Amino acid sequence: MEEESDTRKINNSFLRDHNYATEADIISTVEFNSTGELLATGDKGGRVVVFQREQESKSQPHRRGEYNVYSTFQSHEPEFDYLKSLEIEEKINKIKWLPQQNAAYFLLSTNDKTVKLWKISERDKRPEGYNLKDEDGRIRDPSTITSLRVPVLQPMDLMVEATARRIFSNAHTYHINSISVNSDLQTFISTDDLRVNLWNLEITDRSFNIVDIKPANMEELTEVITSAEFHPQQCHTFAYSSSKGSIRLCDMRLAALCDKHCKYFEEPEDPATRSFFSEIISSISDVKFSHNGRYLMTRDYLTVKVWDLQMENKPVETYQVHDYLRGKLCSLYENDCIFDKFECVWNGSDSVIMTGSYNNFFRMFDRNTKRDVTLEASRENSKPRAILKPRKVCVGGKRRKDEISVDSLDFSKKILHTTWHPHENIIAVAATNNLYIFQDKVN
Amino acid sequence: MFPKGTKRKFSDPVEEPASSGDQGPAAPPAAARTLSSSYSLQRQSLLDMSLIKLQLCHMLVEPNLCRSVLIANTVRQIQEEMTQDGTWQIMTQALAAAQCPADRLVATEVLCRQTETGAQPGQSPKPFPVVGLEEGYHSEEVVMEGEVETEVTMSPQLSTNSYLAGPFGMGPCWDEEDDDGDCEEEEEEEEDSEECMSEGDDADRDHLSADSRTGDQVFGTFEIKHPAPPPDPALEELFSDVDPSYYDLDTVLTGMQSTPKMGPYDLLESLSSHTPTALSSSSSCRSDLNELDHIMEIIVGS
Questions:
Q1: ipTM (interface predicted TM)
Q2: Which residues lie within the region annotated Disordered (chain B) (predicted)?
Q3: Theoretical Cys-Cys bridge with A71: which of A160, A176, B109, B220, CB 3.0 to 4.6 Å?
């Protein structure tokens, strides 16, 4: 894959000695819209930055539709919950685009507690020739007006404005971890640790609770919901994953409260590899339906699994992301890395899946050829427009020249968030506070 | 380095076994359950580590429920295994018989202390509630020498932000606006709710008096008595102005190539050797200190 030039570094000036950027700039989510024309990123500071792909021009064929900043806005602000004396982080947990229905773009962005619907629209004309105001905006004295004119729209510099159209709040006691827009384009779900709520995009003062796994006695709590997503075509079907490594598929037509699942996907544990960390590493951090709606992909700490919706007792494919970490689980537990939530993503044709790892590595698995590759998102190790070199981690014994040993992996450089263009081979990878966009090599 | 409970005397006083880089102890086959001392050590250290993790809640933001649940499940698993081994009873008895020396890890002791109803030998413990609300638990109030002021000032902040005590089952921490759902828990949590709700002054005062509370917020008053080692200037420099959430990564792995690998005990040490302002100050996006002080005043009611 070829690397593009626009690596965005939002706020460079606060870098410290050991190269940590301001925490607010850490990218917390990335998402292409349904056409791939726009790419949105959310960060820990509650900001959303939207990139737009350039129109390809014949005069500069090598600049194949690069992404430039289109709009930046502050989506969420930090809040304080006075009842519990706790801060509500402004970090954007997820962004989901709505399919475009008119000239404006709409996206949902959420922090731990509140989902907001943003409208991003362009303005490139403005009316001139008001009757009651002059060009500066000052009110004209009515007695000086002797004739009426019709204001005319004149072109102006393009302005992109974002306005919050809906605010969906006060429905979540726990932290929202995911949102998903329904294929009916009228409803969406927001999911926290214990509940899934269904909303209508037009109605902000009401939401329906469709899954509730909170036990009567909180002391008996042993399992939480980690992610949920609507089926891409069936508007009545959604799936949610749990911290115990299971996925439940629910049909909203069966009951108002979908506590009874239709399908339950879980792979029995391999007794040979059982340890005290087995449960933690089986916790699913992300669940994604394939574009064709026939498969589900789940990411747990060490693997990515592809499930056929028709087969509940085991996944059809399992890919090892970084199995060399299996011997380091205790250290990773100690430094909390074992709780990192990696995302996973399908390509447009569902033939390749991608997920992140440590040391700014990310992995791609081709489901057909069964080949996989490890790539690195790093400015130091690759030049812009250079083809990325596959990386390799060596587990023990002799380390070859280009290999990296497990012990020298940088666990603070993790790639948790990635997204794939819906049709083309363009990927966006968030590495802490940097955004990398990679494209396929052009012949 | 904090002691690791009774197992210490069976082991070499070396770095914790976990740092050898091994995977956490795999459960030995039930048939041949010969507990090697290294396995027990690993298991014990894992237990201690987990308990500390449960207590080290973030200062201002609600703790991550998923993480807490996973850690609690791990603790429960260890506890169950130790009960089956009979190790649990041994540890309980040993601790009960011991003089409760000052440098013991409160969490372990508290965990092992029998409830008044008394668990029969061999009976598996009831699901480890993490809450630890039963009578008979009390926290040892111990104070860091030489760091008294910082420790004491930090704690009220910890406890007045009532989420601190145990990740769940504690009214204010998990159960927020769901009043109806909490009725059943009220009895158990009464004391804690009181503790939590009264916040401010009560917590302050309780904090400073030793051994005073039963049914206490076990994890909320967790303090270690240990003379803090002279702070490493490199550590200090690294820690200054770094957001608390970075401690987990920075200090343990990436920033620390030159210093020995830190365990959670070191982490606790270094955290408490900090001024409360540095510890509680968040990234530039969070409330600034003035706001925080103001809020604290409101809560403390002073």
A1: 0.89
A2: 1-35, 160-213
A3: A160
